[in-house]
Specification:
mainly alpha; about 190 residues; elongated
Length: about 190
């Protein structure tokens, strides 16, 4: 699964082959075909597994918190911890969102990482409004999209750009920014 995740994230769905995955996994191509009837079946399994270990796990951790910033931080914490264990996971998640745009048939509602994270952020923002953390006149749709963009931008950074140490520092700065503790703006 790790080899498939790496190859898919490096080459994209169209260019990835069972042969390339087999070489990376130190297996034979027929061995992969034994377990996965097609590239699409393998893709779906990698999406499901990666979504479960990062997005679903992050959402579950966030549900343990009560404040919006704490929930977003918990979600990012799970994502960065997963990245520390397997950098290809974050890279694959970002790639899977892009590939779902190119190939809508690859996406399923249950394992749509972008939609699942958007639903989580919508819930968290609405709960923050209900709890008085945010103004009741908050433009939920635009705030959700901005936060989703930031979260997925962090995923891109984690998967393709930053190293583990940088990622932790960047996440910490984002938490400070969201808590309005990063800088003091004048009028």
């Amino acid at each position: 699964m790790r080899a498939a995740r790496e190859v898919f994230s490096e080459l994209g769905y169209d260019a990835a082959t069972f042969q390339a995955i087999a070489i990376r996994a130190d297996l034979t191509r027929p061995a992969i075909n034994h377990y996965f009837a097609s590239k699409r079946v393998l893709w779906a399994e990698v999406v499901e597994q990666t979504n479960a270990t990062i997005v679903s796990a992050g959402i579950a951790k966030a549900h343990e918190r009560t404040a919006l910033i704490d929930r977003l931080s918990a979600f990012l914490s799970v994502a960065t911890q997963s990245d520390a264990e397997d950098r290809s996971a974050a890279a694959f998640l970002v790639t899977s969102v892009l590939e779902a745009q190119r190939h809508p048939e690859l996406s399923t509602d249950e394992h749509d990482s972008l939609q699942n994270s958007r639903s989580f952020v919508t819930w968290a923002v609405n709960d923050a409004i209900a709890n008085g953390e945010l103004n009741t006149d908050t433009d939920v749709g635009h705030l959700v999209e901005m936060l989703v963009a930031v979260l997925w931008g962090m995923g891109f950074y984690a998967g393709f750009i930053g190293d583990r140490e940088q990622l932790g520092a960047v996440v910490h700065k984002l938490e400070l920014l969201l808590a309005n503790r990063l800088w003091k703006l004048g009028d």
